[in-house]
């Protein structure tokens, strides 16, 4: 069983790159599979791995010019599980499903989620017991002085409704430091 531990360095998991981390974490957290929500246009290799290699059921969410359509996510999510099921999952510190996102420099659209959208995603994740799995491969390759915070930073342990944390920030050094160095 995979346990999420509160604390700064306790949140780190070393893997052999982003793909390895992606497969390892999802298969450990959801050994019995769960619904994975993903944007209609998303990173095709990740979606292919989720569907074909890992056999997770995928449900698509509409996208807007600034990223994921949160109204569509809430509508589809609320029709999948009742409020009672969500409350029970929170009480038992379990996730009912996962949301796969590429929040910064989205592949293939190139969009970047606004801070307001990030805050709303956290609220929805907490409300519906969703684990948000973020692929961060290029977020530090910005073209201006402002670097947007990772979605993980919005899931603040000091918040009253924090629970067990709802965001996994999956990244890699391989694409940035050296393609031969497989560390994520």
From TrEMBL:
It comes from the Eukaryota. Residues 10-184 form the Aminotransferase class I/classII large domain. Pfam families: Aminotran_1_2. GO terms for molecular function: 2-aminoadipate transaminase activity; pyridoxal phosphate binding. Gene3D superfamilies: Type I PLP-dependent aspartate aminotransferase-like (Major domain) (3.40.640.10). PANTHER family: AMINOTRANSFERASE, LD15494P. This is Aminotransferase class I/classII domain-containing protein. It comes from Panagrolaimus davidi.
């Amino acid at each position: 069983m995979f346990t999420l531990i509160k604390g700064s360095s306790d949140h780190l998991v070393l893997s052999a790159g982003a793909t390895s981390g992606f497969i390892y974490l999802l298969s450990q957290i959801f050994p019995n599979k769960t619904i994975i929500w993903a944007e209609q246009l998303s990173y095709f290799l990740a979606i292919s791995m989720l569907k074909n290699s890992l056999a997770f059921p995928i449900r698509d969410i509409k996208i807007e010019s600034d990223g994921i359509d949160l109204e569509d996510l809430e509508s589809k999510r609320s029709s999948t599980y009742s409020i009672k099921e969500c409350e029970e999952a929170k009480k038992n510190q379990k996730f009912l499903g996962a949301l796969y996102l590429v929040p910064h420099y989205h592949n293939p659209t190139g969009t970047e989620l606004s801070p307001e959208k990030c805050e709303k995603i956290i609220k929805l994740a907490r409300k519906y017991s969703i684990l948000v799995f973020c692929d961060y491969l290029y977020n530090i390759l910005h073209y201006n002085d402002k670097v947007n915070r990772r979605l993980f930073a919005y899931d603040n342990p000091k918040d009253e409704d924090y629970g067990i944390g709802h965001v996994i920030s999956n990244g890699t050094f391989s694409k940035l430091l050296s393609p031969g160095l497989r560390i994520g």
